[in-house]
Design brief:
Blueprint: H1 4-17, E1 30-36, E2 41-50, E3 53-62, H2 65-78, H3 83-96, H4 126-142
Antiparallel strand pairs: 1-2, 2-3
Helix pairs in contact: 1-2, 2-4, 3-4
Length: 147
């Protein structure tokens, strides 16, 4: 019988093998690029924001399964949401990815994160956290920063 870690691993691999919203959007969509120089992950994020709502979002690039599946999950989660709601979601995701003071403590609860819960285990591997948050940081940059 598969355990929770196996299920999470399968969710990550599914988003890596069959990414959601992969591709580019034509102008006037915003295009923002992000890189993780430690491992070579690269992402280009395309956003169509109208009246404060993310109408469409796509990503392209290459990298490890964590960065690419996280970007896929992110695009699926933010499409159709208001910029304010997306900023809140980015904050919650980054909170989930933060390293706890004590390795014995469980991560702080952040509410249901859907498929993104599968990435919670990344905090056990601090060097991979930057892979998981690359797309999210690029999204914040595309939205004009962390305001």
């Amino acid at each position: 019988m598969p355990g929770l870690e196996d299920l999470y691993r399968e969710v990550i691999l599914d988003h890596y093998r069959t990414p959601r919203n992969k591709g580019e959007l034509p102008p006037p969509a915003t295009c923002t690029e992000g890189t993780n120089p430690l491992c070579g992950d690269e992402i280009r994020l395309f956003l169509d924001v109208t009246d404060g709502v993310i109408c469409d979002v796509r990503f392209s690039g290459h990298g490890c399964s964590i960065s690419q599946s996280s970007a896929s999950m992110m695009t699926a989660a933010v499409k159709g949401k208001s910029v304010a709601d997306v900023r809140n979601l980015v904050h919650r995701f980054k909170e989930m990815m933060s390293i706890e003071e004590s390795a014995d403590e469980a991560p702080a609860p952040v509410g249901s994160m859907g498929d993104m819960e599968a990435l919670r285990g990344v905090v056990k591997y601090p060097v991979r956290i930057k892979c998981a948050v690359l797309g999210w940081n690029t999204l914040l940059e595309a939205l004009g920063g962390d305001s």
